[in-house]
Amino acid sequence: MLRFIVRRLLQAIPTLFILSLLIFAWFRALPGGPASAMLGERATPQRIAELNETMGLNDPIPVQYLKFLGRMLNGDFGTSTITGDSVLTEIGRHFPATIELAFAALFLAVAFGIPFGYLAARYRGSLFDTGIVISTLVGVAVPVFFLGFLLKYVFSTQLAWLPPSGRQDVDIDATSVTGFATLDGILTGEFDATLNALEHLALPAIALATIPFAVIVRITRASVLDVLNEDFIRTAESKGLTAQVVRTRHVLRNALLPVATTIGLQTGLLLAGAVLTEKVFVWRGLGFLLAQGIEQRDYPRLQALILLAAVVYVVVNLLVDISYAIIDPRVRVS
């Protein structure tokens, strides 16, 4: 298993290297040059020259790239042109909000998606199966931002059951320890803060979970139907194994490989920043940083967020590969 993990890690290095080249080339290909693009309306010949000297943009391209790579490896992504803070500090401050939202949405999608997909396959052609298929089509077709506004209108404006935006009420005097609002209240014993954070988390998590839920249901259903038609299932049934053993040991386990891939890809998408959901619910995570960076041309922040998204995908794919090896040990030799 250790050799398998090391091999997958080594395979990820060229991916990150190529991405660093693309980011470097993109930044230097900005109209008017990097310094002019970063300064925007404040650009003057003198300020452009000063910024070029400060950032080493007068050096030869190979030297610039090596310096750029060295700064990235040291975690130095520059300073945000919006706040003046270190980009790494900004990401560290907002990343917990995105992790909290993404994993809440993923939990809902997996907890309901796999059972619903399995049951839809088991009762194929039934009214339940038809209803599930239709609901997944609706879940994929409805834009997340529209669903977010709809949820806010129904559950916040009309019913007043849940708060419409933010991570916690402004009058909650909660102690921040880890940056995870739901966890901090448990660690500090401020359980009212945790409850308040969960109430704020409910609507954005449901909105964000709709597409992953629909995708996981459909992939689980299709995968289970494929496995049910395999010869080894009929062999297991002919040997007199109980239906429970056949379903759990043979059907579900073999059907989980494509589902694991789907969950991994959805996790990467969610962690990379759910921009629309965070904008609708004023959820100050990485999506908020990304949207603000695009609007105000904060290129150091954008560089860091693009690279972070790539790292997230690499890590998630590694975890998916490890789950493959656990589910099916034959994968370890490939």
From TrEMBL:
Q: Which GO CC annotations does the UniProt entry carry?
A: plasma membrane
> Which stretches are transmembrane?
12-29, 101-120, 132-155, 201-219, 255-276, 304-327
Keywords recorded for this protein, A-Z: Cell membrane, Membrane, Transmembrane, Transmembrane helix, Transport
Xref: InterPro entries: BPD_transp_1_N, MetI-like, MetI-like_sf
Q: Where in the cell is it found?
A: Cell membrane
For this UniProt entry, what is the primary localization, expressed as one broad class? Answer: membrane
> Does Transport show up as a keyword for this record?
yes
Report which residue ranges the record marks as coiled coil. Answer: none
| Top-rank taxon, per record | Bacteria
Is Transmembrane tagged as a keyword?
yes
Q: What does the record say about its membrane topology?
A: Multi-pass membrane protein
Q: Which residues form the ABC transmembrane type-1 domain?
A: 95-320
Q: Which family does it belong to?
A: Belongs to the binding-protein-dependent transport system permease family.
This chain's protein is named ABC transporter permease
User: Lineage of the source organism?
Assistant: Bacteria, Bacillati, Actinomycetota, Actinomycetes, Pseudonocardiales
